[in-house]
Amino acid sequence: MGTVFPPQSIVDIQNRIAAGETTPRQALAESARRIDADDEELRAFVARAPLPADVPVDGPLRGIAVGVKDLFDTFDLPTTYGSPIYRDHQPRADAAIVAQVRGAGGWVAGKTATTEFAAMNPAATRNPHDRLRSPGGSSSGSAAAVAAGFIPVALGTQTAGSIIRPAAYCGIAGLKPSFRLLPTVGVKTFAWSLDTVGLFAPSARDVARFAGILSRRPLDHEAGLDIDRLRLGIYRSGIYDQLDPAMADALRKGARVGEELGWFVRDVEETESLRTGREIQAVIQDYEGAMSLLDERTRHRGEISPALLQALDRGGAIEATRYDEARRSARRARRATAELFDNVDLILAPSASGVAPLLSEGSTGDPAFNRLWTLAGTPCINVPGLRAPNGLPLGLTLVARFGGDRLLLAGAVRFEAGLRRT
Amino acid sequence: MGTVFPPQSIVDIQNRIAAGETTPRQALAESARRIDADDEELRAFVARAPLPADVPVDGPLRGIAVGVKDLFDTFDLPTTYGSPIYRDHQPRADAAIVAQVRGAGGWVAGKTATTEFAAMNPAATRNPHDRLRSPGGSSSGSAAAVAAGFIPVALGTQTAGSIIRPAAYCGIAGLKPSFRLLPTVGVKTFAWSLDTVGLFAPSARDVARFAGILSRRPLDHEAGLDIDRLRLGIYRSGIYDQLDPAMADALRKGARVGEELGWFVRDVEETESLRTGREIQAVIQDYEGAMSLLDERTRHRGEISPALLQALDRGGAIEATRYDEARRSARRARRATAELFDNVDLILAPSASGVAPLLSEGSTGDPAFNRLWTLAGTPCINVPGLRAPNGLPLGLTLVARFGGDRLLLAGAVRFEAGLRRT
Asked: At CA B70, angle to CA B65 and CA B75, rounded to 5?
């Protein structure tokens, strides 16, 4: 078992640079050193960039090494989308958010492992907390690299549960912002109605800082928000019989933490529209995925894993009328989600059924608990802080109304502190 | 002045193939022959495909030569996005809809000229009706190639007015379907909230046939629709002082045709929300465009035209708060547009201020009359059939509610027949 470094905090690095305690070059060199030391075993990165001769010394991301999921195009590093079809693919341009990272003075340290086209076929990455376990997917390498202390922040994407779940399994903060808050331009499309760019960092405070910089909005400022008296809804879904006992207990702990914070805690029930939304998310994902990857599944069938090929062919067989009906259900679910927030400010829900699965199970875990929030486009965050009796991380999701990213992050910072005290 | 061939109709070609009067190979060869004969002067195509040895003989698009705007990726033809930055760019995969064209047995005859990144810098294409005039933009080559009778159908995109306007200037049908009815995967993004894939054909009936095949929905079937008693709203916008007298007259003729068809014709006023929507479309376009092309405008400034560079830099200077306010205005405009259709089934509006501008003016025309319908995501079609006193085509737009593509097309077929009788 290799070394796990302590987490790198973007807030801390920025403070130390501002105080003259470190330089951007030293901060980046430390990230590079850690990756060098341990990634051969962890396998979070699939391509590395050399430390630049001229390290940017301006911009809010100076000194910040950023892991970029290998689903985002980069002009200077190959981009495989996790597929052998693109094994030697070199994009011409950066994805929009990668260009933003560089424009803000950040360093793209390398490309992090993704499952095949961000679907279910596992990447080779291991979980830093137990290297016989999966880091989750599809943003496997980004979550693992942050959790291993290699880098302070990373980019990922979520179509069903690909940010929230790996963040939960790896014990870090993962933010899926409001739909299209961060641009998907230059990211390989799976399902255009669902694909969402998101962020990883060790803590809610760190991910808020990163989100504030990339969104160009004051997402890490609490000014004007009343975090003392939030209304917290404990979400009650029809699939909670799938929760491991440790996760059911974590959810109870989360409710208790809410009360300890002085928040108003109440249950929120999954309505019929929400249940339908959760269920038909897969129809939209499958239909759009089959269309997005039509060229690949036509001309490169032999280079697609059997599981994905089956999913794509299944999606290609869905009638347009069924997809249209699913889109109408999705609109109803979005409205029903918005109505939930008439009565609560934040919702608490499980990020996954339990702890990370063993690699030997051949799965990155089940996104069932994430599907509704992706479909709804509502911002959500995996809040770390709890552990199962076996010591592995357990993640809880906080959700806010569409556009409520700032309230979500401020609440998550407070909530994470509470969880870590339990 | 080169030869202008009579239009090629997809419906007609399909009928003749079915009747054994022609073969798919003969139909494609005729398209290729016409392009060979005249495109050196018209300059609709920027890349050509050789006629394949094995012509597909199955699929609804067998025998159909398709022009593909050079904004769509093609695995077998270079794709420049109209920019010297991509002069030698060869994508790895087909755009989703291009793969659909091929899967349906269609032949990608070549890539058609686009303005630079589908923005305002003109392509070299000439208008088939007057070669000293612009075919409009940004889907310049697609519209011109169909209008010149080279090919029966073509693919385009619209972010402000890039389908409707060139269709109007070229005297053909141009369909901008409901937002995301056709996939944008593999199309170079300018503004993700606005970019819409659309289609060109000589007539409404032809474009309906093509749309039905590519959308996998029965868009060219009138069954169950009552086209005899439609309610037609004549749209009254605050910018009609910009209409040329010929276009103002065309709009009056359109209203008369509606009455002659037995439709209920009434005026529909531009409300405050709609006016704001029309005006803030440019904010969204500029902001998103600056982000989508951030890599290019950072690393390739010298290879971007001054006009576009200015627009991108202007977009990059827009504050996120102003963009968010524009998005809220867009939502209000979408709701207001939906409310218009509580009282009417279709709306009639001008497609442009008048006829195609002269090439010497250096402009592809003004999209002011198209912005609202793009922002709203409502399906609309340029209906050809009228001409100005100088003989050049004038186009009218029909608009339907979001998702009402089938009604729109059925109404447009009827309306076009009425226009052609005037």
From this structure: 75
8 Å CB contact between B50 and B136: no
Query: For A249-289, what is each residue's pLDDT tens digit?
Result: 999 999 999 999 999 999 999 999 999 999 999 999 999 99
Predicted confidence at residue A422, as pLDDT, reads 86
CB-CB contact of A96 with A63 (8 Å) = no
Q: Does A402 touch chain B (CB under 8 A)?
A: no
Asked whether B376 and B270 are in contact (CB, 8 A), the reply is: no
Report the CATH fold assignment for A231-271+334-421.
Answer: D-Maltodextrin-Binding Protein; domain 2 (3.40.190)
Query: Does pLDDT of A3 surpass 70?
Result: no
pLDDT of residue A225: 95
Rounded average pLDDT over A196-220: 98
d(CA A31, CA A8): 8
Q: Which residues of A touch B98 (CB under 8 A)?
A: 295
Estimate to the nearest angstrom the gap between the alpha carbon of B120 and the chain centroid: 15
pLDDT tens sequence across A18-38: 999 999 999 999 999 999 999
Cβ contact (<8 Å) for A216 and B320?
yes
Q: Which of A184, A192, A295 sits opposite B75 (nearest CB)?
A: A295
B120 burial via Cβ count (<10 Å: 0-12, 13-18, 19+)? buried
Report ipTM (2 d.p.).
Answer: 0.97
Closest residue, chain A, to B103 (C-alpha): A298
* Mean pLDDT score, A150-154: 98
Q: Please work out, in degrees rounded to the nearest 5, the angle formed at the alpha carbon of residue B82 by the alpha carbons of B78 and B86.
A: 55
Q: What is the pLDDT of residue B3?
A: 60
Domain parsing of chain A, residue ranges: 10-215, 231-271+334-421
Neighbours of A205 (CB within 10 A): 20
Mean pLDDT for chain B overall: 97
Which residue is associated with the tokens 């695995």?
B75
Please classify residue B399 by burial: count the beta carbons closer than 10 Å to its beta carbon, then call 0-12 exposed, 13-18 middle and 19+ buried: buried
Give the CATH H-level superfamily of domain B10-215: Amidase signature (AS) domain (3.90.1300.10)
Cα dihedral A306/A310/A312/A314 (nearest 10)? 180
- Region label for A362, one of left (φ > 0), alpha (ψ between -120 and 50) or beta (otherwise): left
Is the minimum CB–CB distance between B103 and chain A shorter than 8 Å? yes
CB contact under 8 A, B320 and A217: yes
Contact assignment for B92 to A86 by CB distance below 8 Å: yes
Alpha-helix runs per DSSP H in A149-303:
164-170, 204-215, 245-260, 272-292, 294-299
Q: Which residues of A touch B303 (CB under 8 A)?
A: none
Cis ω on the peptide bond leading into residue A138 (within 30° of 0)?
yes
Active site residue A273: no
B414 reaches A (C-beta below 8 A): no
pLDDT at A368 over 70: yes
